[in-house]
Amino acid sequence: MSHKKPNAATLAVHAGGALPPMRSQPLDPPIYRNTTYRVESRQAVLDYNAGHPADLFFYGRYENPTVRALEQKLALLENAEAGLCFGSGMAAVSTTVFALLAGASGAGVDLARPLLCSSAIYGGAYRLFRDQLRALGLPVVFLPPEQIVEGAWPVHPCAVYVESPINPTLRLLDLRKVAARAHEVSALAVVDGTFAPPPLQHPLALGIDLVIHSGTKYLGGHSDLLAGAVLGSRELLARVEQWRKLLGGVLDPGAASELARSLKTLPVRLERQCQTAFELARRLERDRRVKAVLYPGLESHPDHALARRDLRAFGGMVTVELPGGLPAAARLYDGVRLFARAASLGSVESLISLPVDSSHVGYDDAELARAGVSPGMARLSVGLEDVEDLWEDLDQALPG
Question: Which of 113, 130, 171, 217 is labelled catalytic?
Answer without folding.
Answer: 217
